[in-house]
TrEMBL record:
Binds 1 FAD per subunit. Belongs to the DNA photolyase class-1 family. It holds the Pfam family DNA_photolyase. GO terms for molecular function: deoxyribodipyrimidine photo-lyase activity; DNA binding; FAD binding. This is Deoxyribodipyrimidine photo-lyase. Signal peptide: none annotated. FAD binds at residues 480, 492-496, 532, 535-542, 633-635. GO terms for cellular component: cytoplasm; nucleus. Residues 123-183 are annotated as: Disordered. Keywords: Chromophore, FAD, Flavoprotein. It comes from Podospora anserina (strain S / ATCC MYA-4624 / DSM 980 / FGSC 10383).
Length: 734
């Protein structure tokens, strides 16, 4: 019988009992000197061993398993990769010393024998007498050449194999970097990996391949596309219009790509057309919260009016399938007679890959796409450490960031708003001005009650952003350092929603803060202003990290080894956390604020994140996902960075053995219980310090009467369990 394909664990009795796992012991050049040859039906098959896996028992029992699995690529059977599983029951001095293996595949279930032969490279076909390459043959000894085999008829020119059904599990691929992580099923079962849009959770080896420059980063794909189309873009004349594609830059003030598009249109004497694509599938794939979708749609209404005052039309269109966005934009440009498309760069993986494809697609159609840096004050890739690498720790990165900005003050210069379109634009493009702003997709629609509440809490548009920034800079920024960690005190700017939707640029924010200081130095003067600028810079930092380590955008931790932690996936605990029923008042207050406002104080975000991961031992990605699905200011890089910090799996995190005590956090940052009483009203009658722990401080009767739950976990016991789980996961080496 062929083994289950592929085996997720070693199948020998000793290792099966101890959950033996696979360890790669060879790949690439280490094993490409090994060649194989066999016959399947009428076809001569040549194989090159590309990767060897050996079983390693995860428990140190002294058992030495001798099973080996090798992943191979069929090199002359089909043009597309064929997945093969080679099983060796004995291992002595290495794979090249084995004499016989048993071959199992989707294509041939019966075991077939073949011989391993060394070869220095892929064998070439030996020329026939007339000089033409041979079409059939066998490996000739050890020299790697083919000799004719008179007993075998020539192989069929084309062979198609049809499988009855695809494998239920991901299979070992000819590319070992495409193997899923051993725990991939947990991630899919609990909605962390959305298989509708994305592949299985990648292996730790694939994540490390990005670190080792074995795989291209998405931004490198875009840079390559820009380089390959540079001459075409420089030499293509402007046609009948120029288009600016709005993404998360919903403002006319200090918008780099919008300004460049306007300049290009004005120089050519043609109109500028603004475009926004509503993508329900992107909203779903990227976990965009309904409250955030509502905020963006309201912002588009305001943006449409602002642009109309400049005779610039804003065309907003819903494209149901996100893969059709590039072709639809090409169609629209054709309808409008436009030749140039401008857009600001987004640094998430999907967006970078899409824009790289679009740049090439437009060039093939004779069109131009310019993608520009705008979101960050210092574009990703500009700052490097003394060794030439990218920073993974915030403090040295921030020092370099400050120094770089001081040396390049133009980075804080604001670009002008777009100029007015020609007077004839309204007549020529009248139908574009009549375009309505669509409603939210069905799966992102708010109830009437929620919509009214959120619209009162979060007025939309860049004018509101500037109003809020000015008020904060005038009244609160000077004392930001003292007040920023007190959730009951409105000492923060609450501008994160505007940064996330692009109604406020980071340049504008930092320039405004600097203007209120007594120095032009970003790291000098008033302590509150310094601290706030430092917090704005965190946003840049997390986007730089996202660009350099893109696998964090693919459900992987920054530290790949932390993907091996075995989480509890206790859904009752997860529901209690989401609904604010954990029995820890500070945690419950924060989670209820999130559900009510679509926003929660930053200190409380850290508290609830630490509690989820380190008290409940729940997968941090479940919390990260839940936040994105509910935050009005949901920004992937910042949200991921915050969760990575709290769960100790991200860039520049707190050590995993540092675990927040929710009681101490509550006493320190909500000493009078004002925040708790606001969001957990059933405890409003609890007096004094008992508010932080009613069952442990003599207020149990009041808590029971009010229906407030007891602790769902014991913090001390949970801490010990978490430390053990983290250590085991880190040491597992999967």
């Amino acid at each position: 019988m062929a083994p289950k394909f592929p085996p997720s664990r070693c199948r020998c009795g000793q290792c099966r009992a101890n959950k033996g796992s696979w360890k790669r012991i060879g790949s690439g050049r280490d094993v490409t000197d090994t060649m194989t040859s066999t016959t399947i039906g009428r076809l001569r098959v040549r194989l090159a061993i590309t990767t060897i896996l050996t079983c390693r028992c995860t428990k140190q029992t002294g058992h030495r398993c001798k099973q080996v699995f090798a992943v191979s690529l069929l090199s002359s059977f089909t043009k597309s990769p064929m997945f093969l599983l080679l099983r060796a029951c004995k291992l002595s001095q290495g794979i090249a010393s084995l004499s016989t293996l048993h071959l199992h595949s989707h294509y041939c279930q019966p075991a077939l024998n073949f011989t391993i032969m060394p070869a220095s490279r892929y064998p070439k076909r030996k020329p026939s007498a007339n000089g033409a390459p041979s079409t059939n043959g066998t490996l000739n000894g050890t020299n790697g050449f083919i000799k004719p085999d008179p007993d075998q008829p020539p192989p069929e020119k084309k062979r198609k194999t049809v499988l009855a059904e695809p494998p239920s599990e991901p299979s070992l691929s000819s590319d070992p970097l495409r193997e899923p992580h051993p725990f991939h099923q947990d991630a899919e079962k609990h909605g962390i990996v959305l298989r509708k849009y994305y592949p299985h959770e990648m292996s730790t080896a694939r994540a490390r391949a990005y670190n080792n420059n074995e795989l291209p980063r998405p931004i490198e794909l875009l840079k390559a596309a820009q380089a390959d189309t540079a001459e075409h873009r420089a030499n293509t004349p402007v046609a009948g219009a120029v288009v600016h594609w709005f993404k998360m830059d919903l403002r006319t003030t200090d918008n780099t790509a919008l300004f460049c598009a306007s300049q290009k249109a004005q120089a050519a004497g043609v109109p500028l057309i603004a475009l926004y694509i509503l993508s329900p599938q992107d909203f779903e794939a990227h976990l965009t919260a309904p409250v955030r979708v509502d905020f963006m749609l309201r912002t588009l209404e305001i943006l449409k009016k602002d642009l109309a005052a400049l005779d610039i039309p804003l065309w907003v269109e819903t494209v149901k399938k996100r893969k059709e966005i590039p072709s639809r934009i090409v169609e629209l440009m054709g309808e409008w007679g436009a030749s140039h498309l401008f857009a600001n760069m987004e640094y998430e993986v999907d967006e970078l890959r899409r824009d790289a494809r679009m740049a090439r697609l437009l060039a093939k159609r004779g069109l131009v796409m310019d993608v520009l840096h705008d979101t960050c004050i210092v574009p990703p890739g500009r700052l490097t450490s003394g060794s030439g690498g990218q920073y993974a720790v915030y403090t040295p990165w921030f020092r370099t960031w400050v120094r770089h900005v001081h040396e390049n003050l133009d980075l804080l210069e604001l670009v002008e708003s777009p100029t007015k379109n020609p007077e004839s634009t309204r007549q020529k493009l009248a139908h574009l001005f009549e375009c309505p702003i669509p409603s939210a997709p069905e799966n992102k629609t708010l109830s009437k009650e929620d919509r009214e509440r959120f619209r009162a809490l979060w007025p939309a548009g860049e004018h509101e952003a500037m109003k809020r920034l000015s008020k904060f800079a005038d009244q609160a920024i000077g004392k930001y350092q003292q007040n920023r960690n007190i959730p009951s005190n409105p000492g923060t700017s609450s501008l994160s929603v505007h940064f996330a939707s692009g109604t406020l640029s980071a340049r504008t924010a930092v320039r405004t803060a600097r203007g209120r200081n007594n120095t032009k130095k970003l790291d000098g003067g008033n302590e509150g202003i310094q601290t706030w600028i430092r917090e704005v810079a965190w946003r840049d930092f997390y986007k730089h990290v996202l660009v350099q380590w893109p696998y964090i955008c693919m459900n992987k931790p920054f530290k790949p080894e932390y993907a091996n932690i075995e989480w509890s996936y206790n859904m009752e605990h997860f529901d209690a956390w989401k609904e604010g029923r954990t029995g820890f008042p500070i945690v419950d207050a924060a989670m209820r604020q999130l559900r009510s406002m679509g926003w929660v104080h930053n200190r409380c975000r850290m508290i609830v994140a630490s509690f989820l991961c380190k008290d409940l031992l729940l997968d941090w990605r479940m919390g990260e996902k839940y936040f994105m699905e509910h935050l009005v200011d949901g920004d992937f890089a910042s949200n991921n960075g915050g969760w990575g910090f709290s769960a100790s799996v991200g860039v520049d995190p707190q050590p995993y053995f540092r675990i927040f005590n929710p009681l101490l956090q509550s006493e320190k940052f909500d000493p009078d219980g004002e925040y708790i009483r606001k969001w957990v009203p059933e405890l409003k009658e609890v007096k004094g310090k008992a508010i932080h722990d009613p069952y442990g401080r003599g207020a149990a009767a009041l808590a029971i009467k009010a229906g407030y739950p007891k602790h769902i976990v014991d913090h001390k016991g949970a801490r010990e369990r978490t430390l053990a789980a983290y250590k085991k996961g880190i040491d597992s080496g999967l």
